[in-house]
Design brief:
The chain is an all-alpha fold. The protein contains 14 helices and no strands. It is globular.
Length: about 325
């Protein structure tokens, strides 16, 4: 079978699985439903309690989870591609911690600032954290382990600052602590609309840059020889990756391991090109986080478990697998 045709079938299969999980997610929760009840509520908005639960609580929550998973997975793919490092991910390069610390500081010390500006504030924090991580790792030229240790160090430092800010925050801290646990409880259509422009811009930019990603995968010298400016395009892709994280974090909080694990799982599917890698990362990342969210609100219903617990159950083994391999292969199939 042609590689592009195979990738297209995989993409459609992942979308179908995500859609099936999303329908199943309408059924589970503190008030369980049967499939006919959920489908009837889905097709008849405003017709009763079940319809209210489906349309105002469960459906927007699943859509937010899908958008967040797609954004984080593509962000991880971009970071691994431009750094040529299998351990580059939003949470392991300090990007997520930078976004979180700036958003929390703004929430506590500048409460008059509208939440509409939180993604932009998170982007500034993510860029500064990424720059600091690259500086600690000697411009990204160090080993993958060196970069990972640098990112973890920066993340721990920023998490300490976030904790200090929370201590100073007084009565506002409990609501922030709930957000810091990560998850989609209580998310509504307004939050979906809040994150949608950032996610669409980030995903669109990634798709438009797919040929540049393929050139960069050949090495900086080859890319420069074919007319591309590696330094400029790496900066563009870095900003795109952080844009995706910044759009998701104010709504979902810090969600761990999606950006690390999904790009590696997609590589096992052997996508035909960088474009298919981006599309498959979005489809698999979204489906994975929708599944994790459904489990988070159904395993111990009516109580909820932080969604990061379930993403860590997938990302943790991937991280261990990479360490056991000794980081022998780069993000684009090995260093050239």
């Amino acid at each position: 079978m042609n590689a592009h045709v195979r990738s297209a079938w995989l993409f459609l299969a992942l979308l179908a699985i995500a859609a099936a999980v999303s329908v199943a997610a309408l059924i589970v929760g503190a008030k369980p439903m049967t499939l006919p009840q959920a489908l009837n509520a889905l097709t008849s908005p405003g017709s009763g309690t079940d319809a209210i639960i489906v349309w105002t609580l469960r459906m927007p929550r699943s859509i937010a989870a899908y958008l967040a998973g797609a954004a984080l997975a593509v962000s991880g793919f971009l970071l691994q591609s431009i750094m040529r490092n299998p351990l580059a991910a939003p949470d392991l390069t300090g990007v997520t911690a930078g976004a979180v610390s700036f958003i929390v500081a703004t929430f506590v010390f500048l409460p008059a600032v509208s939440s509409v500006f939180y993604p932009a504030i998170g982007m500034v924090g993510g860029l500064l954290a990424a720059a600091l991580t690259l500086w600690v790792a000697h411009g990204g030229r160090a080993s993958p382990l060196h970069l990972a240790l640098g990112g973890i160090t920066v993340a721990l430092f920023l998490n300490a600052i976030t904790t200090y800010v929370l201590v100073r925050g007084g009565p506002q801290s409990p609501s922030v602590l709930f957000w810091l646990s990560g998850g989609f409880q209580g998310r509504s259509w307004s939050q979906v609309g809040y994150m949608l422009p950032w996610v669409l811009v980030g995903l669109g930019a990634a798709v438009l840059c797919h040929r540049i990603i393929e050139l960069l995968s050949l090495g900086d010298e080859v890319a420069a020889g074919m007319g591309a400016n590696p330094a400029f395009w790496k900066l563009v892709l870095l900003v795109t990756a952080i844009c995706l994280v910044a759009g998701v974090t104010p709504v979902a909080g810090p969600v761990a391991f999606v950006g690390l694990a999904v790009p590696h799982l997609v590589r096992l599917l052997r996508p035909a090109s960088a474009l298919w890698s981006i599309l498959l990362n979005g489809a698999l990342g979204g489906g994975l986080l929708v599944t994790a969210d459904a489990l988070a609100r159904s395993v111990a219903a009516p109580r909820e478990i932080p969604v990061s617990i379930f993403t860590a159950l997938i990302g943790g083994p991937v991280f261990i697998y990479l360490t056991q391999r000794g980081f022998s292969s780069g993000a684009s199939g090995g260093r050239r």
